[in-house]
Amino acid sequence: MPQLAATRALAESEFAQLVDALSSEPDRGNELIDLLREDHPVYDQRGAAATVRMRGWILIALSRSALNDNALLFVLEELDTGRDAYLVAAAARALRSYANPNAAFAPFVIRAIDNIRYHDEPVTLERYGEYATSTTDSGTTPVRELLATLVWLGPHAREVLREIESWRANRSGFSKKFWNEVDQAFDAVAGIDPLRESNHDTCCCKLPSSLGNTHSWSPGSRNDCEAIESTVFEDHDGATIAFGEFFRGHPSVVVFFYTRCDNPQKCSLTITKLARLQKLLADQGLTEQISTSAITYDPAFDVPERLSGYGRNRGVRLDARHRMLRAIDGVDALRNHFKLGVNFIESLVNRHRIEVYILDVDGRVAASFERIHWNEQEVINRAVELLKEERPPPPPSETGRLVAPSRSSTALPVASTFASLGLAFFPKCPVCWAAYLSVLGLTGLERIPYAPWLQLALIALVLLNVVSVWMRGRATGRMSAFALVAAGAIAILISRAGLGLDGAGPWGVALTLAGSLLSALSREKTTPVLWRRLATRV
Amino acid sequence: MSKKGIKRAAKSAKSAMQAGATSLSPRLAMTTATNAGKSVKERVAAMPNVSQAVIESDAQLQAVLKVLRSKDEPTPVRLAALQALQAASFAVIEFESCRGDYLATLRAVATDSDLELRQRVLGILARENDGFAQQRLLEGLQNPEKALLPPEKALQLLGYDVHADAYPVAREIVKHPPSDAAKREALRLLGADASSKPLFEKILRDKEETREIRQIAASSLHAIAPAALQKHAREMLLDPKEYSDIQETSLTALTQFGDAGKVEKDETLMKRISSLRGVGSTKLKQGARLFQAKYGG
After folding, report:
1. CB of B59 less than 8 A from some CB of A
2. pLDDT confidence of residue A423
3. Any B CB within 8 A of A170 CB
4. In chain B, where does DSSP find H-type helix?
5. Whole-structure pTM value
6. Which of A10, A241, A306, B203 could make an SS bond with B217 (beta carbons 3.0 to 4.6 A apart)?
7. What ipTM does the predicted assembly reach?
């Protein structure tokens, strides 16, 4: 068979061949697991149903060999939040191929049964892309697979015995066909408990330690924010705000979602949990110190009214420090900065994971919680640790220069202010020259040469000022300063054009000064935390 | 069966079901409904009483599913069986036992030779966001030889699920519509696709398009780009050559969803609305009054 590359051009049938080939070669197991990443190019521009078929086939392939720890997380994720019958059935089967039953798996299996049992349906796991048209022909169902997984867990699932008991007692929520299987699961789980029988200390009630990647914490090696600095958001009220403006100066909790997500275990629950997290922040007096935001994956559709309605309906607090956002510029930079686990068909999400990020005071990703449901207080605890962090000096870049993550927020206003001051004090007319000469005369300097090149320098200064204020305006999302400076520049140039409109010059200088000051001050306006901190210190 | 024949069969099935809905015990109803020796009318009349029985007994469920699946059974009886199962499925918890077999049977019947049955079954599956149904409907739109339903119906059913991957094929149908109805449904489906904004803007301003199509474009724009609709609504109201019903829609859009801050400062628009109170159609005059009641002027 020719080598197939996992790209978006791959036909579904070829993809199935590739998965079969990878699963038959034990040393290529990681390539197979890599295909489960939501952002893998192979899912780019596929429909949601195709994505389900493809991911399901990988899980089925994993179930044919021994499931390793790297793949385990994807399997547990599907059990935790999955709503698609095919994927849940495949995940349940894949879990049974793990080397040893583990007590920590039991709650996932129970949750999966609770999520799926009222929309259980026949599935076929034997051939790629096939849908069951009969429950008797080699078909199974997610509930059947999950009950078989409970039997496999046996006494290791003792913690959930009470739930199984209640199913037996009520008999509701399960097809009559499964009553025998529920009984079998009960018998298996209620059997001899290997933990009590054995004397060894090994605790098998925790997830394998390699599953630490559901949550990452990187105190020392955070990526800088240079690329995302220019990303501009629109919030739930329609106000625009740049990344640096909102995410700098305080730690932030960021969740991702989209309003058209049809899995209530994902986006809807994430936003509801965000509301609870905000309440916990308020109870602990941290509302002003830690900001929160929910960023949509679907910015074209999730207009401010939708963001606002979606958040308010789930009890989310919305104000200047807590916002729901959509990226209106720099979406790719956003995806790269967070390494988002999402893929699209056109602008619509075809698959995404649960993802929560904690950003430090510089807007860098310090911690993330992925795939499995997160605990609100645990997220807050991480954010509080960031509050206590000393703000480190900017790390040197590869070339030895200082990286300037705040270039647009610091360098630009400084350049702008100097340029405008230079412009304001630049001698532009004979009266100016006379005034300077008289001052210089007073100070003992007798003459300063007048040269035509100074006119060119004046134009260069004017343009430099306009460009720097424009860049600053773009970064902050406020263009009023640019309008003033541009008007001032036009007035100055007209006054020097020999059209007899010399009177425009002073107006131009005044407008330029006003615009430049406004541009420089806009930074102060965007860092209220700094002012607040200074105020509290005083 | 011809279209008229289907309608007649469905109608007679419905009236027979209504007539016999309360007259039989579930056990007797089951015996009658599944007995090929009884008349079609009797069987159809018995079907409404089998809903409870299928929930209670797997054997009864399998008997009704067999009727639905069997190509030898008369269409009115199969349609009645489908309706009885649908009625039973409303009891979500009790029906859970039956759900797997029910869905598998629906998938099997989705490719049946009877159009009416196919259409109803695919409709039920599409409302469940069933991947099998979506795949078949998409295949039919891409390759009309494989089509299980007319394109407009297929598009309508795919519209139940925003993730059904139907936008590319819908756009293609808008470009080369096999019928007006198909174009209309394709546009309705695209009404949730944010990237179709330029398409809707173009259609909305195109006076050559039918009013209905332009109305769809207006409501779609309202859903995906409300600000753009406000802009176009204003321009269409100011255009004296624009059709009056399109202006009515524009006026409603501005009255109901307009940005008050912008609208109230728009003297040109205010003057125009004021003038419409005297000269426009009755609906336009009424709309202008409502507009002025909200924004003044």
Report:
1. no
2. 54
3. no
4. 3-20, 26-33, 40-46, 51-56, 58-69, 75-89, 92-109, 115-127, 131-142, 151-158, 167-175, 180-190, 197-205, 211-224, 226-238, 244-257, 260-265, 267-279, 282-295
5. 0.75
6. B203
7. 0.82
